[in-house]
Fold each of these.
Amino acid sequence: MLMQIHQLEQHMPKPFGIPRFPELKLSLPPLLDEPTLIIDSRSNRAFRTTGLLGSGGTAKVYGVRGVNGFGREQALAIKIPVDAEYSRLLIAEKETLERLDHPTIPKAQALIRFRCRECLVMERVGGNSLRGMIGQLTAIEAVRTGRLVLGGMNYMQLRGYTHNDLKPDNILLVGATVKIIDFGIARRKNGPAPEYVEGTPHYMAPERFRLKAPNEKTEIYSFGVLLYEMLSGELPFNATSVSELATMHMQTIPARFDNERITPELVGIVLRMLAKDPEQRPTIEEVIFELDFYMIAHAISTNQQTQ
Ligand SMILES: Nc1ncnc2c1ncn2[C@@H]1O[C@H](COP(=O)(O)OP(=O)(O)O)[C@@H](O)[C@H]1O
Ligand SMILES: [Mg+2]
């Protein structure tokens, strides 16, 4: 296991744990220049890009104008893998998105082939990523945002999926709601154990470093890291190497965070989500209850103050 982590570190800062397929290593030009016209080499459907919307570890996402099935023009997004070997993530992402239908999850439209890569055409989502708000949220804003994410997570779990890469970068704040994006490593629950450790090490449950299949409890752990970070402005565990992070997730007790606006119950549930033993972590229903309770208590006390 440690061997594996050590080997994976050699690939950093490339996305952690993405298996490599040497047979797919074609001599492609890197995706350096900004494409303006994207033509699907299978259907010849064309898209004109309107600008870069964002980039992550595996892909760049461009805004495009496209025509929908009814001939109406619409604003879409195209996710283009930075390396052809990541095409498999976008194929998987499209399959997952097609099975999910929820206001917090963007809709997939098509897979197109461009520069020998599989690219995902999807609903374009406005708004900025939660990453830019870390350290600036009030407690009630953090709880409200977390509650919206939990709504999407709960829906995914009921449909039998786990996202496996929950983090502020993959949550977009859109008006009064959120969109969860980046379903490349989402999996059906109770599937086979993964062959490689996949995900973002700062947010991963200890058992995922031991190649246990992701489930509700691994997802609750990642949500715990996310809520901890939103409430305190800091990650519970921070280090530069994957093996150090793995050890911290497995052994280190996270520091308590304090803030006069945060109740002991809220701190308690966040720390329980970060339990090393998955059995000790709360269920999603318990977390929903605690966050709803906090929001109701906050609304009542704000009302009393203004009366
Ligand atoms: N549907 C979308 N609409 C608008 N922006 C998007 C959309 N999907 C992704 N983005 C932007 O592109 C960035 C990278 O997308 P993401 O799917 O997270 O790629 P990666 O798998 O490389 O992390 C996101 O952080 C976000 O800013
Ligand atoms: Mg991402």
Amino acid sequence: MAEYRIDIFYSGRRLPAEISKEAITQEYSTFLEPEIRKHLEMDSRAFSPERGQYDAGVLLRTFEGYRNLFLWLVDRDIFIEGMNFVFGCAIRMKGAILSVYRLNSEELIRKETVHEVGHILGLGHCENDCVMRFSNSLQEAIEKPGHLCSACREKLQRMHGI
Ligand SMILES: [Zn+2]
Ligand SMILES: [Zn+2]
């Protein structure tokens, strides 16, 4: 029985949301019940004309006060201050935004979904051969595995009492 419901939103195509839903079901079935909600427009105030990217922090404010966990898949490039770009950005036990802009395969969308959702559930970055390994280039994302290591899985079970 899943513990929490997670609502998936998307900007652009719906397909990445379907891929994410499947990835969440496969990796986190004991913790989460994913549901695709709807298309969501990206707030133009989050766009930085100098960078040609959207500010992930500003976009996340769209969900202030939202009561379920959420995952928002966007099709434009995103950044946070101090980084050239990010694949995603998560707030623990709230939700995450994930950009598919640089993710050119289904496999990468799955992997980065599992990574961001791991952050939502409270995991930090991991040094093991693990999907929670930090990656800030496409190559690093390609090279890391698509699943949690046993240490991260045990940590999750401890944190959520399952
Ligand atoms: Zn991360
Ligand atoms: Zn790990």
